[in-house]
Amino acid sequence: MLVKLVNIQSFEEAVYNFPDKGLVQIMGENSNGKSILEKVLKSIATCGFFDQEERDSLIRDGKDSGYVIMEYKGKMLSVMLDRQRNGCRVCLVRQDKTRIERTIRDGGIDRLVDEFGFRVYGKKAVVLQFHETFGIMPFVNTSKSLNFEIVDAVTTDTVAQQFVTNFKEITYKRAKDLNGQYNERIQGLKSVLEHMTVYDYEAYEKLTARMQECYAALQHLLPIKLERIVAPPQVSYINVPEIQLEKLKHVEFCPVMEELENLAPVLKRICDFEEGVCPACGRRYVGVGDCPCG
């Protein structure tokens, strides 16, 4: 396992190489960086660097950020520690080169750390890989029950074993039941769909909109009051016989018509006299008695 520190506390840059298996005890003189390595790795494993004060204590004085890079069994975990909370980022590169990056705001950093290989016990009080020990005896400053938990985790991958157990006894059975329920529901929905009448909802929407427009227009119309219609009185019809003109052989004028024809010259003279024309000679005159004919 490789660990690289950049701008972490008193280290401008430091590189550590650890074996991938077994217990590792870090030894050395005072002020040579043992506690720095333990603090920064524990802060990452427990996500303690979320705290502003703890994060500022890890970053080198005079620097705005520092980062830690770790490589283990083909995986790489890089952690960017920034004095600004939004600048902190954690990136996990899996063995298949899949890259996953998270920020404190995104969440899920603890799952990336766990997937990389860190295990935290006792409410984040003990980190298996990086908790400092006294001498060659590990776990002396932990409870007996916690020691059993840690030893069991070291000797057996309880997480994987529990996962398999849960899969066999819970997940698989539950998934099988749900699969049967879903298939029944799918068949029922298919049957309903086959017998369902399809309507042109767009046409109905257009019709609804048109009816609403008509309703709005009718709201502004005033009714016209018509006068009462009175039926006319009953009318009787007389059947008049048809006149056959072709049967009339002779039509005689009455005596009155003959007398009117004789009066025509008299009426003409009277009209001429009124217009200033002498009825005797036909010349015009100014006044009565002015005509030359006397």
In short:
With 294 residues, the protein is of the alpha+beta class.
Secondary-structure map with pairings?
Elements: E1 2-8, E2 11-17, H1 34-45, H2 52-58, E3 65-72, E4 75-82, E5 89-93, E6 99-103, H3 109-116, E7 120-121, E8 126-127, H4 144-155, H5 158-194, H6 201-218, H7 255-262, H8 264-274
Antiparallel strand pairs: 1-2, 1-3, 3-4, 4-5, 5-6, 7-8
Mean pLDDT: 76
Strand proportion, as a percent range, falls in 5-15%
Taken in chain order, the helices and strands follow as EEHHEEEEHEEHHHHH
Helix content: 25-40%
Number of beta strands: 8
Overall geometry comes to elongated
Give the structural class: alpha+beta
Biggest sheet strand order reads: 2-1-3-4-5-6
Fold and architecture overview:
- By secondary structure, this protein is of the alpha+beta class.
- It is built from eight helices and eight strands.
- It has helices at 34-45, 52-58, 109-116, 144-155, 158-194, 201-218, 255-262, 264-274; strands at residues 2-8, 11-17, 65-72, 75-82, 89-93, 99-103, 120-121, 126-127.
- The protein is elongated, with a radius of gyration of 60 Å.
